[in-house]
Design brief:
3 helices; mainly alpha; about 5% strand
């Protein structure tokens, strides 16, 4: 695994994790009873994005480390998941 592929793997995992974490503990304008004129009641009032980004980074480091170790030590290879034996070797 090259350094570039390690960074790309980290970025992909980070954004996927962030998209999962974003909806947690959102307080909408409708929940708080302060709907601003011209907005929808489901619009977020309190979103805590900084805290969610920090949580996402911690979770991503853990997941990235596991996947990186699997790739580096070849615990699972492409030949292990080649169900139809299309790859030679």
């Amino acid at each position: 695994m090259t350094i570039t592929s390690a960074f790309v793997l980290f970025a992909v995992i980070w954004f996927l994790t962030f998209l999962i974490v974003i909806p947690f503990k959102i307080k909408t304008q409708g929940d708080l009873g302060t709907v601003a004129k011209g907005t929808q009641a489901g619009a977020p009032e309190v979103h805590n994005l900084k805290k969610k980004a920090i949580i996402t980074t911690g979770v991503t480091i853990f997941i990235w480390l596991i996947i990186t170790l699997i790739i580096i030590f070849e615990i699972i290879t492409i030949h292990d998941i080649d169900l139809f034996r299309r790859l030679a070797g």
